[in-house]
Give the backbone structure.
Amino acid sequence: MRDDGVNCENLQKTLRDGNEPRKDESAHLEDCDACMEVWLSLALDTKPEVRIPTDFAARVAAMAPRRQKQPIIHTQRHWGLAAAMAVVTVLLMVCFRGPAPVNSWIGPVFLFLVTGEIAALALWLGPRWMRR
Amino acid sequence: MHGELQFEDVIREHQGFVFRTLVRLTGSREHVEDLAQEVFLRLYRGLESFRGDAKMTTYLYRITLNVAQDEWKRRKKEQSHTSFDDPDEGWEDRLPGTGGDAEEILSSRQRMAGLERALGELSEVERQVIVMFHQEELTYEKIAEVLSLPLNTVRTHLHRGRKKLKERLREGRTACAMTA
């Protein structure tokens, strides 16, 4: 209770109940920090009433651009590369197996495979490069 | 999120928050529907990167604040704060209670208009924190996440904002008394 005759507790109850303060209470409200604090919190807590058109959600959803499905990209399998890697692996295993006898078949076979592989690559990639 | 229908549900669920926040942060109901539409279309563009609902709401809050901020700046540039000059717009719709005589109601309206004006004079971040904390009842943690601010900074902005509001309300009353 301040000397203006207004009871703070009563005024705060009035405000919390959602009633308008009287003229003298209004004057008190602006001078009393505790009452102003209550009024301010209540005023800020109050949600503004907004008028949302009933079709707002449907309208905006319809405006959203439709998402297109990502096109499926069929990537070619690299059979040539896999075959080349397999051949090189086999050749490396054969080469590093140990000392080869003098009249070994490994040398000619190795040469034949490497030559064959280069020829195959040329046949495989050649037409593609020609088309570019 | 797939399809138009689910997006419509998302809009329905959050449209209240978006409209209310835009109204309070821009201080006007003018163009609020256009602004809300902009918010949801921006959300739609970013939807694919979201898996959890929590992240989506945080993103939605951020977009709403950004759109409100842009609008606020635009209006400041145009210097057309119609709602602040016009106490009949905005706050009167949410005056609590119906009791009291005409003079009491008028006094209450003036106080509310003063509060709206004072809100408009706060810094952007203070206004955002106050609206999210009081009106939308978000926690400090959520506000900190939305604004990418430390928790204590959010508390400071809220405290400082409220203090400024009270000061401005008192200053406003003094100014009114002097002009009367």
Remarks:
- Residues 81-92, 94-98 of chain B have pLDDT under 50 and may be disordered.
- Chain B has two domains: 1-86, 100-180.
